[in-house]
């Protein structure tokens, strides 16, 4: 299929054509440009229309949340590759998405700059397990960032029994107290 972007590259005869196709693949092109392999999908002119589709999904989410009398909020969460790209280039790969969310007045919080600042002190990779997922320490730090943002925006429930007071004061919540220490080790 001409627009099948996620099929693995395969070599076959004639090999010169396979090589030309490989060079044109989005993964190789991204590597040559020094950006994550998915960066092109954030461009508005990408033939997959991935940016426009993503924004429409977010608009549908916001409309559904409002119809349910909820307060919608889209979190823009950087990957490990996004953080490294920002560290090297000073620009966010997903900046076109953030611009489109703002243009369509979709409520969002871009945690990228805050996460970068919080993780940079100890080294970004310290907070990630192999294969680029947050480890236990990264999850705790990330949760703290999101918690503070939700508190600042008044989006957390108030009152006894919510656990918000404990978390705001840095005390473990009931969920944290129920966790076994070995659970943290398995998630790293």
Largest sheet: 2 strands, parallel
Rg calc: 20 Å
Averaging pLDDT over every residue, what do you get? 80
- SSE order, one letter for each helix or strand: HHHEHHEHHHHH
Q: Strand order of the main beta sheet, please?
A: 1-2
Basic shape: globular
Number of strands: 2
Low-confidence stretches: none
**With helices defined by DSSP (H or I, 4 residues minimum), what is the helix count?**
10
Number of domains: 1
Structural class: mainly alpha
What percent strand?
Answer: under 5%
Intertermini distance: 39 Å
- Helical coverage, percent range: 40-55%
Layout of SSEs?
Blueprint: H1 15-24, H2 26-33, H3 50-67, E1 74-76, H4 80-89, H5 95-103, E2 108-110, H6 112-120, H7 136-152, H8 164-168, H9 174-178, H10 181-187
Question: What attributes does this structure have?
Answer:
single chain; 188 residues; mainly alpha; two-stranded parallel sheet; 2 strands; 3% strand; globular
Structure overview:
With 188 residues, the chain is mainly alpha-helical. It is built from ten helices and two strands, in the order αααβααβααααα. The protein has helices at 15-24, 26-33, 50-67, 80-89, 95-103, 112-120, 136-152, 164-168, 174-178, 181-187, and strands spanning 74-76, 108-110. The protein has a two-stranded parallel sheet with strand order 1-2. The longest helix is centred in the N-terminal third of the chain and has 18 residues, at 50-67. The chain starts with 14 loop residues before the first helix and ends with a helix.
């Amino acid at each position: 299929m001409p627009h099948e972007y996620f099929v693995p590259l395969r070599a076959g005869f004639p090999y010169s054509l396979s090589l030309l196709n490989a060079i044109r693949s989005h993964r190789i092109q991204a590597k040559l440009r020094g950006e994550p392999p998915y960066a092109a999908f954030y461009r508005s002119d990408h033939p997959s229309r991935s940016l426009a589709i993503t924004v429409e999904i977010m608009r549908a989410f916001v409309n559904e949340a409002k119809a349910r009398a909820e307060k919608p909020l889209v979190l823009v969460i950087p990957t490990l590759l996004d953080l490294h790209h920002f560290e090297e280039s000073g620009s966010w790969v997903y900046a076109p998405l953030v611009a489109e969310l703002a243009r369509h007045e979709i409520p969002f919080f871009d945690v990228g700059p805050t996460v970068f600042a919080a993780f940079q002190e100890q080294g970004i990779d310290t907070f990630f397990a192999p294969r680029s997922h947050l480890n236990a320490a990264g999850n705790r730090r990330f949760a703290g960032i999101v918690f503070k943002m939700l508190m600042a925006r008044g989006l957390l429930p108030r009152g006894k029994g919510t656990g918000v007071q404990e978390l705001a004061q840095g005390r473990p919540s009931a969920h944290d107290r129920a966790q076994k220490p070995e659970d943290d080790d398995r998630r790293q």
